[in-house]
């Protein structure tokens, strides 16, 4: 079913280097004369998406997961850094200034998205057969109406929507949330994509259906040869998806990647203090259910004015004076990339005084 697109040898499918996305917001009514508010949604992020890859991005609300995910699939232009598609600058392809022989339309087609609320992205006035014929018309214009119908029926059956002939004639509102999400997945897969961005795609489903949907996505991965960028605020879902898919987890904090690496390592041997906090706070992953949350403050700082030095220092249980002054760079530890001074045995961090306990630690019962 899969067609191969031209690639530069050895190049990752998508490669992000030092990517930054800053949003310049309008001044408020009473901000006359002040600088526009700049939201630093993503800062200094680098990683690769390989063929058949599974990458989960996890972190608190507002940490930049969606903005980063949209950058990966070409829906958000970065304000800094580079994003390459098969070795060529994605935005040069978009602007027509690339020397690569790749059409932007093909790039867009190969990078698909499924949303948290599939109902809103499926046309309510069209039957499923029409909704699913559309991508096939684009990717396989040579197919007859009968051949398209056959492919659609077989995919609907594959995702458990039986009898397919019955489902194909329904409108989206005649489906459950889980069925709508399956249709959204089918539609994305029929575009023959290199990457599907699944943005909180299972969050709205009943807990009992989440694992089923993740299993289905991973089952179909091999068949369609697609990679996933899976966004979740829930570390246990990210773990399930990336571990079963043999992939990686990226832990985001205030627009930056705190830790990135194989799911197994990030979960079982977290290195960044923030990953440890997330793990501690995730019921399925931690033995401790009560006690003191290992964090100095509970409030998330403002991405318009992120803390100087390490962005996590205001909440980090391990923060020392140097963390207020210097910004750590990502360091490779085994297969993980970790943005914390503690990764260097000889860093001045170790001789730096601990930060005053300006806030009492918050207890999990608060
Ligand atoms: N178009 C925009 N204009 C201005 N600010 C934006 C825009 N899109 C996102 N932001 C801001 O960028 C930051 C990151 O938002 P983003 O949606 O990427 O985070 P997220 O981690 O996906 O959050 P959530 O889990 O709540 O969806 C937030 O502070 C958000 O308000």
TrEMBL record:
Q: Which family does it belong to?
A: Belongs to the ABC transporter superfamily.
Residues that span the membrane, as ranges = none
Q: Which UniProt keywords apply?
A: ATP-binding, Nucleotide-binding, Plasmid, Transport
One Pfam family it belongs to: ABC_tran
**Upper classification of the organism:** Archaea, Methanobacteriati, Methanobacteriota, Stenosarchaea group, Halobacteria
Report the CDD domains cross-referenced here: ABC_NikE_OppD_transporters
* Listed name of the protein: Oligopeptide/dipeptide ABC transporter, ATP-binding protein
Every ABC transporter domain range:
16-279
Molecular function as annotated in GO: ATP binding; ATP hydrolysis activity
Q: An example of a Gene Ontology BP annotation on this entry?
A: peptide transport
């Amino acid at each position: 079913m899969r067609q191969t697109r031209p690639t530069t040898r050895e190049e990752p499918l998508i490669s992000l280097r030092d990517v930054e996305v800053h949003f310049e917001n309008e001044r408020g009514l009473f901000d006359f004369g002040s600088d526009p508010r700049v939201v630093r949604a993503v800062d200094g992020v680098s990683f690769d998406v390989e063929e058949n890859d599974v990458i989960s991005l996890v972190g608190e609300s507002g940490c930049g997961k969606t903005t980063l995910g949209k950058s990966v699939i070409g829906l958000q232009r970065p304000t800094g850094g580079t994003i390459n598609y098969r070795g060529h600058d994605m935005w040069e392809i978009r602007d027509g200034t690339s020397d690569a022989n790749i059409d932007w339309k093909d790039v867009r087609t190969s990078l698909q998205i499924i949303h948290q609320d599939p109902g809103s992205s499926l046309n309510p006035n069209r039957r499923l057969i029409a909704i699913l014929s559309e991508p096939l018309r684009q990717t396989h214009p040579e197919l007859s109406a009968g051949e398209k119908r056959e492919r659609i029926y077989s995919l609907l059956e594959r995702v458990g929507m039986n009898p397919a002939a019955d489902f194909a004639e329904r409108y989206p509102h005649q489906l459950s949330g889980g069925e709508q999400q399956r249709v959204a997945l089918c539609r994305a897969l029929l575009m023959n994509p290199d990457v599907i961005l699944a943005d909180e795609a299972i969050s709205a489903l009943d807990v009992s259906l989440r694992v089923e949907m993740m299993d289905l996505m991973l089952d179909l991965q091999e068949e369609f040869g697609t990679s996933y960028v899976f966004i979740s605020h829930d570390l246990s879902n990210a773990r399930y998806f990336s571990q079963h898919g043999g992939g990686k987890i990226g832990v985001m904090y205030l627009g930056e990647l705190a830790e990135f690496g194989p799911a197994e390592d990030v979960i079982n041997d977290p290195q960044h203090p923030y990953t440890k906090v997330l793990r501690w706070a995730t019921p399925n992953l931690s033995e401790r259910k009560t006690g003191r949350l290992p964090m100095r403050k509970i409030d998330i700082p403002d991405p318009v004015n992120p803390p100087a030095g390490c962005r996590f220092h205001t909440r980090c249980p391990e923060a020392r004076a140097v963390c207020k002054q210097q910004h750590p760079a990502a360091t490779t530890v085994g297969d993980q990339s970790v943005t914390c001074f503690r990764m260097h045995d000889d860093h001045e961090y170790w001789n730096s005084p601990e930060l005053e306990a300006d806030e009492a630690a918050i207890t999990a019962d608060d």
